[in-house]
Amino acid sequence: MWIYVFDDSLAGLFCTFMKLLFDLFPVILFFIAYKMYGIYVATAVIIVASALQIGYVYLKHKRVEKIHVITFALILVLGGLTLILQDEAFIKWKPTIVNLGFALVFLGSHYIGQKPIVERMMGQAIRLPANIWIRLSWLWIGFFILSGIVNIYVAYQYDTDTWVNFKLFGLMGMTLVFIVLQGLYISRYMEESDSPAEEQALSDGVEPLNTQKSDVDQQDKQKQSKEF
User: Fold this and answer.
1) Which residues in 176-214 are b (16+ Cβ under 10 Å) and which e?
2) 101 & 211 share domain
3) What CA–CA distance (Å, rounded) separates 32 from 45?
4) What domain range includes position 216?
């Protein structure tokens, strides 16, 4: 599961949904394979699908985020143990381990570095006050912990068929609801960025035109007051 932050526009929602759909590609194939052939074939399918997904990302961007590599490594190890030992418990633990791992990473970023990891990842896309970034980070930490707990609860309290359904529809539903609520929350605090012309002027050491105009208006007012 990756990090999703979007504005409250339809375009932002659509882009976020498409990214989520791409990230869920291996899980969707896992679901289909399970319904047709069972848990062990589905496990092999998700390993191959995840490898293809990583390969596609690398070919497109010429790099792969460490968090994606770690997630794939967990799928490979836990999926491999599931196939070798013929024990489905290993693959069922994967979502919980991943989510709790994310929670620890996000929590650690509050104490290591100057910014929480969610701000480092999304700070170039949106501008938020520092305290809102902290709140957003805590929201993600809580969501990861909740997802991990709910997954392992379903895995051990219900049969495999129910868990597979939950893995796709339950976790995806939880994620979509969280993303929408998060988008509505941060939309109240999003700061407007400077226009390209203003940013270029500032970088060149020249005051933006609106600032210059304001200074001229102020000087005119002072001149008029002196005349009176």
Assistant:
1) eebbeebbeebeeeeeeeeeeebeebeeeeeebeeeeee
2) no
3) 10
4) 198-227
The model's pTM: 0.73
Same-domain status, 163 and 221: no
Q: Band the pLDDT of 33: cuts 50, 70, 90.
A: very high
Q: What are phi and psi of 190, to 5 degrees?
A: -65, 135
What length is written for the chain?
228
Maximum Cα interatomic distance, the chain, rounded to a whole number of Å: 94
Is the CB of residue 34 less than 8 Å from the CB of residue 42?
yes
Tokens in use for 165? Answer: 């359904």
Which pLDDT score, from 0 to 100, does residue 200 have? 44
Beta-carbon neighbour count of residue 7 at 10 Å?
Answer: 16
Residues 53 and 78 in one domain: yes
| Residue 192: pLDDT over 70 | no
More confident residue, 91 or 179: 91
Interval 45-57: pLDDT, tens: 999 999 999 998 8
Q: Is residue 2 part of a domain?
A: no
Query: Does residue 4 form part of some domain?
Result: no
